Amino acid sequence: MFNRTYRDRRVLVTGHTGFKGSWLSLWLLHLGAHVAGFAVDVPSTPANFDVLDLRGRIKHFHGDVRNREELERAIDAFRPEIVFHLAAQSLVRRSYTDPAGTFEINALGTLNVLECLRTRPWVRAVVLITSDKSYRNVEWCWGYREEDALGGKDPYGGSKGAAELVAYSYYHSFFKDGSTRIATARAGNVIGGGDWAFDRIVPDCMRAWSENRAVALRNPSATRPWQHVLEPLSGYLALGARLWEDRIGFAGEAFNFGPDSSVNHTVGELLQAMAERWPGQRWEISQDIPSGAPEATLLKLCCDKAIHFLGWNAVLGFNETVSFTVDWYRNYYSHEKDMYAFSLNQIDRYCELAAQRRSAWIS
After folding, report:
1. Residue 62 pairs with which residues in a beta bridge?
2. In angstroms, how far is the first alpha carbon of the chain from the final one?
3. 22, 117, 135, 218: which sits with the fewest CB atoms below 10 Å from its CB?
4. Residue 127 pairs with which residues in a beta bridge?
5. How far apart, in whole angstroms, are the C-alpha atoms of residue 156 and residue 304?
6. Is the pTM of this model over 0.90?
7. What is the rounded average pLDDT of the residues 260-264?
8. Are 171 and 115 in contact (CB under 8 A)?
9. Exposed/middle/buried for 55, CB within 10 Å: 0-12, 13-18, 19+?
10. Could you report the per-residue pLDDT of 277-326, keeping only the tens digit for each?
């Protein structure tokens, strides 16, 4: 898959201790890559990074993307050929309590990555992960395309829009005529096994249900696209492979990776589907609605560009996404299975479904 781009390549993942970063690191190992990670901490206890014992399986560099010298030392020590930049402050609600830190990590961190890489031409392909929140969201009913206006009413969205502008400027100033090819990837919130972030509906449910507690819901009628974590990761890997192949027209571009509209369901419908796979669980409506941190009610992406140019498409339906997610947590909390092997099996199963549904990246 991915034209065997990653086999025996040196690949650096910033933010590898996070939810997405740990799954991406695992998949890269599965593809035969030599993987290194750069991160300031392990973001939760437990954490997918620890559950999968990635510290003992990849090269682990401790450092903060806001510190350019630490980042330079890691890059020079590992000499990656491909870089995936995921290190970020990734929570919208936290961005209201720490706006400056959010901008520093997300915008300045992206600048530091590019500043390091512009003088290291042996890095050949770079995928910078931003967010669907980078768009100036007016909550219209159709999907945003890559050329639509950037913005962000909340500090998180603003910081991701700023990261996109940094990438655009650096590409045209320093990378356009060089040997290093960069692109940005925009995806939304994801669910899946191994996420223990706070103030997210699935991790909150899994923590509560593992202790036979009810979970409190803020807004059961809110609708979200419930996308499994492997969906955008397959897009990032497909984009990285195309950059490595030096395909004309991919460098300097942004790509959306989002789910099919059929996975849009309310929070209440999600909990009902999860409870069917974990019987006996319950929830209640919270009367304590935090103020001062509004959340968007509608944000859709148009993924035609990724479908047409990368041959990428979302694979899983809503019920499959829920099944992948709940099965992972139930196996973790039962202590019955090796979660490293179980997680690899989920990647393999995802790839089998992608092949059955004729996703081009797996052909």
Report:
1. 39
2. 6
3. 218
4. 84, 183
5. 25
6. yes
7. 81
8. no
9. middle
10. 998 888 888 766 555 566 655 678 999 999 999 999 999 999 999 999 99
For residues 299, 303, 305 and 311, what is the CA-based torsion angle, rounded to 10 degrees?
Answer: 160
Q: For residue 105, give the DSSP letter.
A: I
What does 293-320 look like in DSSP terms, one character per residue?
----S---B--HHIIIII-------HHH
If one counts every other C-beta atom within 10 angstroms of the C-beta of residue 315, the result is 23
95 φ/ψ angles, rounded to the nearest 5 degrees: -65, -20
Q: What beta strand segments (E) does 176-329 contain?
A: 181-187, 190-191, 215-217, 223-225, 227-228, 254-257, 264-266, 283-285
Q: Over 70: is that where the pLDDT of 129 sits? A: yes
- The distance between the two most distant Cα atoms of the chain, rounded to a whole number of Å, is 59
Burial of 291 (0-12, 13-18, 19+ CB in 10 A): exposed
Total residues belonging to the chain: 363
198: tokens are 């706070």
Directed axis angle between helix 201-210 and helix 318-334, to 10°? 40
d(CA 35, CA 83): 10
Tokens representing 275 are 């409870």
Residue with tokens 């909550």: 139
Which residues have CB under 8 Å from 30's CB, separation 6+? Answer: 344, 347
Strand-pair category, 59-62 with 181-187: unpaired
> In sequence order, what DSSP letters do the residues of 108-158 get, joined into one string?
IHHHHHHHHHTT-TT--EEEEE--GGGB-----SSPBPTTSPB--SSHHHH
How many alpha carbons lie under 13 Å from residue 180 in its C-beta half-sphere? 26
**What's the alpha-carbon Rg for the chain, to the nearest Å?**
19
